Amino acid sequence: MATSDVLGSLVQLTRLAPALVIAAVAMGACSQVSSADGARLMEWLRSSYEINMGALLVLALAAGLYILRTAVPRKPKVSVLDFAVHRPHESWRFPRSALRDLCERSGHFTEEDIQFQEKIAYRTGLGDETGVCPAIQAGMDEALGIEPARFEFSATCFPAIEDLFAKTGVSPQQVKFIVTNSSLFNPTPSLSAMIMNHFKMGSDTKNYSLGGMGCSAGVIALDLAKELLELHPESYALVVSHENITNNYYGGKDKSMLICNCLFRSNGAAILLSNKAADVKRAKYNIRNIVRTNMAADDVAYNCVVQTEDAERKVGVRLNKDLVKVGARALRQNMTALGPKVLPWSELAKFGANSALRSAAKLYKPLAGMLPAGWLDPYTPDFKTAFDFFCIHTGGRGIIDGLEKEMQLNRRQVEPSRASLYRFGNTSSTSVWYELAYVESTQEGVGKGQRVWQLAFGSGFKFNSSVLVANRPVREQHTAWEGFDATAMWADLDKLEAAAQAARAMKEKLSS
């Protein structure tokens, strides 16, 4: 029965109910009492009409709410059944020492340009196992183009998808939706169509390809797939995240556009979502929350990461000096929206009390002098009380440093992000999945009920959070993390940091 029919019936019931009750009571009473008593009873019923009417209306309302609750379908719960990330082939390995040779062979860069790129590569937390596709390593402009870019996508993403299907036992033909995201490479046919063609999916599969949405697009793709499944019960959705390096190699001399050459590396991640009843117990994670912050209406935020042309009309991505400040603002806005959904009452109470006290101090100036030092400082809620694991986008060492300090995280809590940046470089929208794979592979794994916070941010400017809750104990050795030595990584990073501090101290000494 339609909801409108149910409501119509309830309205009719409320109109007829008083008469029906009066008639029923009167009929029952007539068999037991005299005519005089019956007259008194009828008089009492008439005088109590308003009371009866009110009670019946309350009863009808309660019944209506119950029927609405049971008649209106609930959104099905959407889960991450499993995911897979790609580890580049050994032949793609690009140690930091190879950067100079590549720059010299390309013929595009001066010695100053090369030194600048080497400095970035060594100081931003990359190691010697990152992957760069063969087209770029060839060092020749003619090796770049659409077909090499297509090859990079297929070489990184198809194996991840195959691994995912093998792990879950789901066939490509069972997938109802495909959502891909790639910010800088969006050919025709689309990337999602490439996947459909390669895996020979059914003609009823619906595909979507997101482009130009930056490093936070992985969470956006996850959100879109989740919303699709909430409207289509008993379905699978495949999310494939990727950023293409071949299609975005910059051969110019603008330092603000050279940074991307130093940071970004080949990548690919595939995630399978399900709302099927049969997958309730075996799914890895339930998607608890997705909170998206979009600052595109702000001109400064909009222009801090832009694909453009330099003075010589060479295309690249320019990183503006406002990027760090914009990112901090976006983080605060996102945390403000996310906090009430995930923080315990104790943290919300502290934040509310601090806000009230600061507002009172603004209205009554003498109050500030009466309070102990520090009481009027803005209170940052402790998100460690809400989450067990943090997957911070691998934008660079400085970004991870900033969030580590802002949220007062310890080394172990930022290790998934440090390790992902060190072994794979900046993997753009896929980084939060490389980090979750690290947690599952090399740390203690994820216990049932434990919460994971994926923090993704990028051009637009956008800051997006996804909150995953483990549906069962999760411990898996991902191929991408086989043989990784975290102790050796920390030793290397500490050595580089000591050298950087010594260089800064020397520079300050010479300038004084």
Ends distance: 83 Å
Secondary-structure content class: alpha/beta
How would you write the strand order of the largest sheet? 3-2-4-5-1-6-11-10-9
Tally of individual domains: 2
Uncertain spans, ≥5 residues at pLDDT below 50? 1-33
The coarse silhouette is globular
* Gyration radius, rounded: 30 Å
Domain Chalcone/stilbene synthase C-terminal: 389-468
Pfam family, one: FAE1_CUT1_RppA
InterPro entries: 3-ktacl-CoA_syn, Chalcone/stilbene_synt_C, FAE1_typ3_polyketide_synth, Thiolase-like
Keywords: Acyltransferase, Membrane, Transferase, Transmembrane, Transmembrane helix
Structural account:
This protein has helices at 3-30, 35-47, 49-71, 98-106, 111-123, 134-137, 146-168, 191-199, 217-231, 255-263, 299-302, 323-342, 345-363, 366-370, 397-406, 411-424, 431-442, 486-511, and strands at residues 79-85, 177-182, 206-211, 236-241, 269-274, 285-294, 305-309, 315-319, 389-392, 451-458, 462-470. The termini are far apart. Strands 3-2-4-5-1-6-11-10-9 form a 9-stranded mixed beta sheet, with helices on both faces. A two-stranded antiparallel ribbon has the order 7-8. It has 2 domains: 3-71, no CATH class; 79-343 and 381-511, Peroxisomal Thiolase, Chain A, domain 1, CATH 3.40.47.10. 50% of the residues lie in helices and 14% in strands. Mean pLDDT is 87; it is low at 1-33. It is an alpha/beta fold. It is globular and about 115 Å long. This is 3-ketoacyl-CoA synthase.
